[in-house]
Design goal:
Blueprint (H helix, E strand, L loop, with lengths): L1 H6 L3 H24 L51 E8 L5 E6 L4 H7 L23 E4 L17 E4 L7 E2 L5 H4 L7 H14 L16 H7 L3 E2 L1
Parallel strand pairs: 1-3, 3-4, 5-6
Antiparallel strand pairs: 1-2
Length: 231
């Protein structure tokens, strides 16, 4: 009434002004309440209980186990072979593809001959036990003179296997071992190894004249060796 009388306001205008003042007071109170500071809760620490627990199998009362599952046994390793159940053998001598061949574990001598392309025509394989099981790292000499490769040809699992050739005669350049080549005049360990390396790279000797291409063999040494060797 005092404001109405003092300012000369009409009742309707005075009521509108009162509503505006009340609304402003309510709005100011809401802003003050929303802007008040609030406490922040620290995050909970991660405990081991939150990790996924792996259920353990029930203990076998008869076995007296502790309840933990036993690891399943893996596949047994290949006997005498490399990883994956394979073996590596060296097939040399009178075969079409001499060299290193990888075969399945449990392969036999006949499998090694097949991997090497088979024996060359005219090679006698009667003294070769083609049914013998091979071992990893074995050498098979095909068409070598008697005694080359040790006792492996009898099927006893030796270091080498030999298909024997003629009992007498010149030394075979394509089948003789390094030790047998050293029995030739003027041939030592180094020269014998050069001969072996040459026949490995070229698949054997096709003629005695190829000795000229071996490192360390000149005309004089070739003349000494020519009557004592054969391809």
């Amino acid at each position: 009434m005092w404001v109405q009388l003092r300012c000369g306001l009409e009742p309707r205008t005075l009521a509108a002004l009162a509503v505006v003042l009340v609304a402003a007071a309510v709005f100011a109170g809401m802003r003050f309440w929303s802007a008040r500071p609030e406490g922040v809760r620290a995050p909970d620490s991660v405990s081991q209980a939150g990790q996924v627990a792996v259920p353990q199998a029930d203990a076998d009362p008869a076995a007296g186990g502790s309840g933990a599952p036993e690891p399943s046994p893996g596949p047994p390793p290949a006997v005498g072979g490399t990883a994956g159940g394979r073996i590596v053998v060296d097939v040399s001598g009178k075969v079409r593809r001499p060299g290193i061949h990888r075969l399945p574990s449990g392969a036999r001598v006949t499998d090694a001959l097949e991997a090497a392309g088979g024996a060359r025509p005219g090679v006698d394989l009667d003294g070769l036990n083609r049914a013998r099981v091979l071992v990893d790292g074995e050498q098979i000499l095909v068409g070598a003179p008697p005694g080359a490769g040790g006792a492996g040809g009898a099927g006893g699992g030796g270091a080498g296997t030999t298909a024997t050739g003629p009992a007498t005669g010149p030394v075979s350049l394509s089948g003789a071992t390094a030790d047998q080549l050293e029995t030739l005049p003027g041939v030592g360990p180094v020269l014998a190894q050069h001969i072996v390396d040459y026949r490995t790279q070229h698949g054997g000797f096709r003629s005695v004249d190829e000795l000229h291409e071996v490192t360390g063999i000149g005309d004089r040494r070739f003349a000494d060796l020519q009557p004592l060797v054969r391809p």
